[in-house]
Amino acid sequence: MLLGLHLPTRFGYERAFEDAKRLGCRSLQIFIRRPGASLEGPGAPLGSRDGGIESLLVHRRFAPAPGSSDDDWRRRAVEKLGQELKAARELGADAFILHLGAFSPGSDFGTGLSLALESLAQAASQVQNCPAIAIENVPGGGRRMGSSFEELARCQEAAPAGLSPLGYCLDTAHAWGAGEPLSTPEGMLAWIERAESLLGRENLLAFHLNDSRAALGSRRDDHIRWGGGHLGLGGLRALLSLPQFARTPGILEVDGPLEDRGRSLQEAENLLKSPA
Question: What per-residue confidence (pLDDT) applies to 149?
């Protein structure tokens, strides 16, 4: 797996890229700083530069509710998504990661999903050579869409013409919150097997490698560095050992000082190099 970190961009994209190289990342995930603003730097896409970063992911910063039944909310969602997709393309991103959000009160999953995918299609149509879009699983609860593989698989089935390529980013902490028992190698491997069966191995574009302080099935999102929560190292080691994901980005979304994030990355690298 191409292990890496989500790093801040408050000092600019180039600084995030340099920090990623210094910390030993093979992949990097960032937020777009200000949608619609010009991109600083010499102009070459970050993802094309030398230095060991083999994959660049952009995560959606805003929550624009693309599945809302309110036309004005959805129009603003399309506008913001289009801005971020364009910026992601200009940075040379390999994929743009986002959550489906929630359907509106009084609506239902099918309607919300159809509206969300149509919003994505409209935003993507504004961007020439649009990066791949990766839908991320969520812990679920309430009206939030995309907590199960069955719900995620419906994205492929219901995607409008032109919304391609469309793939997935799987977050281990979100899956745990949704009730997936990933704390053992057997649980992790069974989860991956179902993901490949229902979503397609070729559509698994990235992983978010997060532990969780939340209880299994709590529907809560409570990220923490791996080893600090309930998931344990056995499941992570099993996931990292799978050869089919040797070229797939695996992002650790850890907070704190950069050096602490770097240590978390090194711990994961050690597991990758020495699987049990």
Answer: 96
| 216, 176 Cβ separation under 8 angstroms | yes
Q: How far apart are CA 172 and CA 180, in angstroms?
A: 9
Burial class from Cβ neighbours inside 10 Å (0-12, 13-18, 19+) for residue 126 reads middle
In this prediction, residue 41 carries a pLDDT of: 45
Q: Find the domain containing 258 and state its range.
A: 2-273
Q: Domain count of the chain?
A: 1
The secondary structure of residue 36, as a DSSP letter, is: T
Dihedral sign for Cα 89, 90, 91, 92, please: positive
pLDDT tens for 203-231 read 999 999 999 999 999 999 888 888 889 99
Q: What is the residue whose two structure tokens read 């971020």?
A: 84
pTM score of the predicted model: 0.92
Extended beta strands in the chain, E state: 2-6, 27-31, 55-59, 95-98, 132-136, 166-171, 204-208, 211-212, 223-224, 249-252
Measure the CA angle with vertex 139, ends 245 and 268; round to 5°. Answer: 35
User: CATH no. for residue 126?
Assistant: 3.20.20.150
Whole-number mean pLDDT of the chain?
A: 89
